[in-house]
Amino acid sequence: MLAKRIIPCLDVHAGRVTRGKKFGKAELGQLSDVGDPSLLALRYNEEGADELVFYDITASVEGRGALLGILRSVARSCFIPLTAGGGIKTVEEIREVLRAGADKVSLNTAALANPLLIKEGAQKFGSQCIVLSIDAQRVGENSWRVYSHGGRKETPWEVREWAMKGVELGAGEIVINSIDADGTKEGYDLKLIRVLADCLPVPVVASGGAGKMEDFALALEYAHADAVLAAGVFHRAEIHIGALKAYLKERGLPIRT
């Protein structure tokens, strides 16, 4: 069995790591400054994170490119896999992000606008480099709508249909972000995660809502996630990655230590 992964997520706005709540509904003025992305990345590298994810959370809204400078700085000092996303619209921009030190590129809004970007990226760099990040909001008991532009614009896609389409086009991993749960610390949307994990042939990463160690365990055990992503509880040092890994290992989950 493959080891489950613990992934801190750094949401970057104007060169700083920020946090909000239910990100699709928050205004930029409601975001709180968490710290310097390079320093936080170093901390997580030392704590034993399995990967790091950087999202430029307003790139698609403001039209900015990927945070290549920050990525280069982090890649020089951290020795764990890096994923970067935000404002990546072309195969050439995917190439730039990978050259800057990322192991994987996360596509969201641009993929919704041009699904063939997933296929082109996978053909050029391999499916293992292409992550499809999906922002979803519940619209029924077992139904979720996909949103673009950082959770600001509703799309016609139902979450399962879009995830399956993304994998068909070549995405090698799915990150599922719950707009409803994001920043609430009330737990992941387990139904949403399990729906995708049980129907997709690629790894599914749970995102949005972690508040305590049990939330991570439930996403991995009950919802069948391959990895768990979180931000605030790690940034505020409410949960230490080393302690979380020890807890999950005690529950019998395959964890890298």
UniProtKB/TrEMBL annotation:
Q: Which UniProt keywords apply?
A: Amino-acid biosynthesis, Cytoplasm, Histidine biosynthesis, Lyase
Which protein is depicted? Answer: Imidazole glycerol phosphate synthase subunit HisF
Instruction: Describe the protein's quaternary organization and the partners it interacts with.
Output: Heterodimer of HisH and HisF.
Asked whether the keyword Protein biosynthesis is assigned, the reply is no
Pathway connected to this protein: Amino-acid biosynthesis; L-histidine biosynthesis; L-histidine from 5-phospho-alpha-D-ribose 1-diphosphate: step 5/9
Write down the chemical reaction(s) this protein catalyses.
5-[(5-phospho-1-deoxy-D-ribulos-1-ylimino)methylamino]-1-(5-phospho-beta-D-ribosyl)imidazole-4-carboxamide + L-glutamine = D-erythro-1-(imidazol-4-yl)glycerol 3-phosphate + 5-amino-1-(5-phospho-beta-D-ribosyl)imidazole-4-carboxamide + L-glutamate + H(+)
Please describe what this protein does. IGPS catalyzes the conversion of PRFAR and glutamine to IGP, AICAR and glutamate. The HisF subunit catalyzes the cyclization activity that produces IGP and AICAR from PRFAR using the ammonia provided by the HisH subunit.
Which residues of this protein are catalytic? D11, D135
Instruction: Show the InterPro entries listed in the entry.
Output: Aldolase_TIM, His_biosynth, HisF, IGPS_HisA/HisF, RibuloseP-bd_barrel
The family note in this entry says:
Belongs to the HisA/HisF family.
Name the Enzyme Commission number(s) assigned to this protein. Answer: 4.3.2.10
Where would one find the signal peptide in this protein? none
Q: What is the lineage of its organism?
A: Bacteria, Pseudomonadati, Verrucomicrobiota, Methylacidiphilae, Methylacidiphilales
Q: Where in the cell is it found?
A: Cytoplasm
Q: Which GO terms describe its molecular function?
A: lyase activity
EC primary class: lyase
